Amino acid sequence: MRSDPGVPVFSASKLTKVYHIGEVDVFALRGVSLDLYAGEFVVLLGPSGSGKSTLLNILGGLDVPTEGTVQYAGTDLTKASEEQLTRFRRDNVGFVFQFYNLIPSLTAQENVQLVTDIVPKAMPAEEALRLVGMADRLHHFPSQLSGGEQQRVAIARAICKNPAVLLCDEPTGALDVRTGITVLEAIQQINRQLGTLTVVITHNAVIAKMADRIISLKDGRVIQEEANSHRVTPSELDW
Amino acid sequence: MQALNKKALRDLWNMRTQVLAVIAVMSCGIGVFCMSASTHFSLESTRDSYYREFRFADVFARLKRAPESLADRLRELPGVQSMSTRVIASARLQVSDMLEPAQALFISLPPEQEIALNGVCLRRGRWPSYDQEDEIVVSETFANAHHLTIGDDLLAILHGRQRTMRIVGFALAPEFIYEIQPGGIFPDNRAFGVIWMNRKFLSAAVDMVGAFNDVAFQKSLSIQNERLITEIDEILKAYGGQGAITRKDQFSHRFISNELDEIRRMGLMIPAIFLSAAAFLMNMILSRLIAAQRVQIAALMAFGYSRWSLAKHYFLFAMIIAVASTSIGLPLGAAMGTGITAMYSRFFHFPSYGFSMPSYVVVLATAIACLAGLAGVWTSVRAATRLRPAEAMRPESPVVYRSFGIEGVIRWISRSVTLLMIFRHLVRRPWRALQSVFGISLAVAVLIVGAFMQDAIYSLFDVMFRQAQRFDLQLVFIEPQSKDILTSLRAIDSITACEGFRAVPIRISQGTSHRLISLMGVDGEPQLSRLIDHKERTHDAPIEGLLLSNKLAKLLRVRPGEPIFIEVLEGQRPAFEMSVASTIDDFAGMVAYCDQSVLARLLDQSQQVSGAYLRVDPDRLEEIFSRLKTYPQVAEVLVARSMRESFQKTLLENIRILRSINLLFSCIIAIGVVYSTARISMNERSRELATLRVLGFSQKEVVSILFGEVTMLTFVALPLGWLFGTGLAFIIVSSIDQELFRIPLVIRLHTYIFAASVVLLTTYLSLIMIRREVAKLSLVEVLKSAE
What we know:
A: alpha/beta, 6 helices, 29% strand, globular, B: alpha+beta, elongated
């Protein structure tokens, strides 16, 4: 569902990331180039160590590449200062993590409110939670919610600001199949309903079937990029 | 080195900033302990050997005059090992660098080859020759204060006669370690000095040939003080005896003992504060470490490490910190002790006095540090070794938070949920929050303890010197004079006001308790020396009966309306009963007051005066002093201004030094506690804080959460610290020898504000340190792992 396929939201060029671990240089990315467009649902597929998380972190402004550039809506993120990156994350990016990363001392509603407090045009926390089917669990603390429920709260927290991009790092990695599907449904619904560019990292090839585009990585390189003309709904998935 | 020990060292290194904070706090505690214990030891042992070497007496008695033949009777009293008689006289001195006269106490030196009690330590020069009439030895303290040199001449008015004396030596004596004017509270070495002179010439000068007016005894252990004193008083009664006293009541000795007690108290109280703060910091850090190392502990147990070897491993942390703190605390204590010793040497004059740290202090300090360390890690080590390996392998059960009723208030204060995060985090571990509150409140308390003394002394100074003592000069006569002398003084036109007073030495008793004090005859409503209490209320002498220092009434257990027995220790020595009319909360010494005419009637005398208070024209002081020289009756001229100055110079300066030391110490506690609290909170919540950063919170916003948490703790700690500080100040004030001084418990508002501001400032500084740590949080790493 590309609204404007001509202008990419993200444009990454020749990204290289080297970690110096002790006296060894570990190449996490070796010259990755890609463009991501508004409204797309993209799955980054690859085994662990393939560099997909590193790529996602760089796109989300959590990390900077050793070499190469990332343009976001015409701005070069690799030249941004710490403050500019914070601003970028605050205004444009929604994150969903494998381990939810909810604040245990805040209820579902308050976890979402964390973001609505700092972003001016955010939707009300209740609305975001309703979008992910959590309207009846507003006042529950994370410890009172199941894994799937916690992840849905995390999605609500990510999308309440109407981000330009939703970045999900193994969002179903810690969940069983049935729960995983409810979470994927929530993500897909957001992508469809709000037209948010959605990037999902997974090592689970089955999930790729719901994507518009599948980018496969291995050893820090893009080894395959394919458009998926037969998108399926999460409920049709099984793994 | 065993692998486990290497792990301990590396773990310590990884938390070095927090470990340093604990070491800093503990070192202060150990430092103050070493300083106090060693200073106490140095001062006490120096004093005791000085006493031994120069035969400091056990019992002292002053009298008007007794023939030397009486000495044998005194010597034969049961329990007397040795005895010496002396002649003592007050005099006025004219010193070239001072407009007003200085006061001197002339003391006779024993004849050649006689070894007497209360020996004198010749510091420079020589003893006076036996054939030179006007040779004197001057106290080294007085000589130094006036830059006198051997061979200088001093002009003295002794027994009403002016004479020139030549200085041949400088000396010190164990009865004047604290060299203070009779009746004074603090030393003024320019205004007062002791002078020794050969007995033959001094007796002749003061009309005491073949007689004595001062006697000292060394007694055997077998006899009780009370019994000996009763016997001495009985014999001296007929010779104007003013009541014998034991060492305990000897002025210089009493001051030193008071100081020794204070050092001991400080050596217990301050280290206790620091070591408990250090112990709880250690507890905080180690329980956090053990929680983080749950899985490691389980693995070690699975490998076959015993609980005891694991316990030893974590105790090693405490021991390393304790030993490090001791090795900083010992030199710190030695440095502070040297400083304090230098301060004391301005008050206490010994032939040689240096600071030394006895080995038992080193051993004790190490033991105390280790104990504090063990106390700090005890609970966490116990918790660690109680874990079962399989249980420890599993992650800790998830943290459960709840809502609280009072959260409505927080929502009302701020709509932001970060405040809720802070609040819930604190109440989830109330015990730890309380520990932090307690630690910060200790810092506030230490600041108040350091600063309140200045308030108390200023208040004392104000009431004593500005409101009560409104005279410029105080004259003390050799003998009581008829009131005519006041008329003559008033006639001097540079004297603007003049009031007489009568002071009579008495023994005041009730049942078995008694005290030797002065009974002051006061004229109606005195204006120049007013009777003012702690609450700045003016009291008048009662028309009938006695006004007693409150402390005296308490010691004698009498209340207003009750009778009390009085024995006059001069003249006809009448004894009578009087009723207590009221009491007064005064500041120093213990005094009884009554109306001057009542006193004259009781003494069966016409109204006489022992001295006078003068208000004078400040521009004509020189003229007044030269006029006063024509009054042979005047034994002493005390200048109020110089009393005030010496008070300010010595006491207040020392208080300022102590205040700055306490300031430094409390900052160390505050930084230690606040930094550790914030740091641990940061470690525990690194995942939470990193998540916030990812969600778009800036570094500053994340730090402000930690800041809010610590500030909340600090605000709870402030009133508690004020309370602790006030309590400690009360303990300090009430532990000062109340018969000498009664320091009012005055803590001004700005002291509380000062303490709060310093702690808030250090809180802020600690958070600046934390800010750097927050900047280092790895956003990527922290999100990877499961909680």
